[in-house]
Fold this sequence. Notes:
This protein is an alpha+beta fold. It has helices spanning about 30-35, 35-50, 55-70, 80-90, 110-115, 120-140, 140-145, 155-160, 170-185; strands at about 10-15, 20-25, 95-100, 100-105, 165.
Amino acid sequence: MQINRDLNLVIPIEQDGGATAYVYSIPISVSVFERYYMVFARAFNMIYTGGLGITSGPRVAAMIVKDTAKTLGVWDGPEGVERGLIQEIRRLTSVLVLTEKGWGPIPLHEAIANGSLNDRDASEVENAIVFFTVSWHMNRWEDRKKGTEDKPSMLESAMKIWGGRLESSSYSEFCASLRISMAAETSQPPETTPQLQVPS
C-alpha cells in the first residue's frame, strides 16, 4: 500500500475484563495549526529542550500545552486553545470498541463521559494525542513520515514506547482490518500443548 502524508495515530487500550479498544486520531488541519502556531512552538520547545523528549513527552504534552496557552493568555475564550485546539483534537479522535454488532466508533468525549475510558486511560490518551499533534506539525515531513524497520521515524519511536502506532489506513479501512484480524484469530484451531514423554 502506498504511504501518504496523512498518517493517523492508533493507540490500543487494554480494558477491564481483557478486551482491547482502539483510539483512532486524525491530525488537525494546517489552518488550525497556523492559528495556534506560537503555542505549538513553545510547547514543542519545552518538550524537546526541557529534557522530556519521546519518553516523557507523550505523558504530559496536554498539560504543557495548557500551561503554555495560559502563560500566553490564550487558553480561555471562544477562540482560545481550550475550545479551538483541544476540542478540535477531541473531535478528530474516536474510540473503537467491540460490540455484539462488531467494531463501533464512539467520540472521545463520549467515551470519557460514559466510562468506556477511565480517568487514567483518558489522561494517557489525551496527552499522547496532543504530543502526536505537536510533534506532527513541528517536525519536517522527512522527520515525521514512516521510517524503515532499521530506522523508525521519531514519531514511530515515541509511539512504540507508548504502545501506539502511525497508521496510513483511513478510519473505515482500519475498522475493516480489525474485523479481518478478529475473524482470523477466532477461526484458527486451538494450539495443543506438547506432552512430555517419560521413558518407562
